[in-house]
Amino acid sequence: MKAITKDLSTAALGSVLLVLPFAILEAVNTTLTRQNARGFTVLFGFLWLLAAVFLVVLMPVMRSVRAGNAANPLRLLLGVAVLLVVAWVWGSVVADQMPCFLGVPNCD
């Protein structure tokens, strides 16, 4: 149980560190109003959740690769597939929102 809590806290902290630069860019280049506050919360919450899921899935995959444990290749393949899908979605959202992060007017 202690290892699970440590993995989740590590994933949460790592995902905060991944999302923080984009939040800072958004805060510097966009004025937060009551109308767009919900959108910011949803966007950065979603980016944080995707990054946390990525790290939660990545840790056991890396442990099994390091240990040389190829006893269950289907589990390893499924983990890598989930990592690829999550990374693709996260990258797509960041690429779509990058003009907004950089302060381009009418970026939506």
Describe the structure.
- The protein has helices at residues 2-29, 34-67, 73-101.
- With 108 residues, the protein is an all-alpha fold.
- The model has no long low-confidence stretch (mean pLDDT 86).
Total beta-strand segments: 0
Query: How many helical stretches?
Result: 3
- Terminal CA distance reads 43 Å
Low-confidence stretches: none
* SSE succession: HHH
| Rg for CA atoms | 17 Å
Approximate shape: elongated
How confident overall, as mean pLDDT? 86
**Helical content (DSSP H or I, runs of 4+):** over 70%
**Helix-strand makeup class:** mainly alpha
Largest sheet: none
List keywords for this structure.
elongated, single chain, 84% helix, 3 helices, mainly alpha, 108 residues
Would you kindly provide a brief summary of this structure?
This protein is mainly α. The chain has helices spanning 2-29, 34-67, 73-101.
